[in-house]
Please model this.
Amino acid sequence: MNNRTLKIVTVFGARPQFIKAAVVSRALSQYPDIQEVIVHTGQHFDNNMSQLFFEEMQLPKPTYHFDIHGLPHGALTGRMMEKIEEVLLREKPDWVLVYGDTDSTLAGALAAKKLHIRVAHVEAGLRSFNEAMPEEINRILTDRVSDLLFCPSEIAVNQLRNEGCLSNGAKVVMSGDVMKDAARQFAPLMRKPTAPLPDRYILCTFHRTDNIDNPQTLKLLLYALEQTCNTLPVVCPLHPHTRKSMESIDYPIERSPIQFIEPVGYLEMLYLLDHCTLVMTDSGGLQKEAYYMRKYCVTLRNETEWTELVGCGYNHVIGKEPANILQTVQNLIDVPPVFPITLYGDGHAADIIAETLRQT
Ligand code: UDP
Model:
């Protein structure tokens, strides 16, 4: 690398991306010859889905902050691309850095690629093999146009090899998972939420469109969670999309046996993870965080991108059939979660990412 400053435009817009970007941004800031310009698309905009993470994780304030949300996928992605393109024409970066699998990820990658700006994708190579998921389309297409692909696992590296990503001249790097970095760095700062908590509880989150868009599916899932409360209390930070879907079926959120709480910040989430007996979720990130915090996870989906955890018996992917959920919970709540945390790198993925961007 010569003396020239390397300019990186980071594009993000959703909660899990703020968490991932926080650790990478910190690693990038260690290099005086790297300038990071942050673009927030506005995909997530509530204070407790966005701003809170900037404060808690000391993520630098975005240079560009759009207000693009609440639209169907096509309109959302299109408007984001238009605004991102303007930024890229003005900033002329060396790299555009994108995270995960949201519409903000794809918009950033496509806008950059069409301007011949190199794209780096963090959390590359993950697949659910379920193309009905909008996230799956975003991942596949972002990987396809990326020049630098940072993978959290060897399975992800092999997936990209099998898909022929390397034949485009793209570089695939097994960096490990940046969320492992986040858990390692922020766990000492975990904070007790203000909501009263039972002594033992299941920590639950769900917000995948597959679980909340169809009223029948949502009712079935809520019934399963209500039944689970007879075994152990269920504490559920409620995603705004899930709240909206529950309100549309007139579900009595305040009178439910499930303890719904407002979405919490990352430091409170780490506390909830650390103190829970079990995790139940359809979130991608939470499946790994359960593992990093040594908790078994019951995944309310039919498949997962994080297959290593299933192979090891830490994650039980069981769909949303109430009888399966109840049986799996009962089987797991008294099993001591004793396992080594060796998967997904060594918790220094962000350093590998920063150094590779600098050297490539
Ligand atoms: N999370 C959080 N507060 C909450 C719920 C989740 O900080 O109330 C964190 C969680 O710990 C994980 C990330 O948000 O780091 C996961 O985001 P989400 O489930 O929204 O997205 P996914 O990982 O499924 O893409």
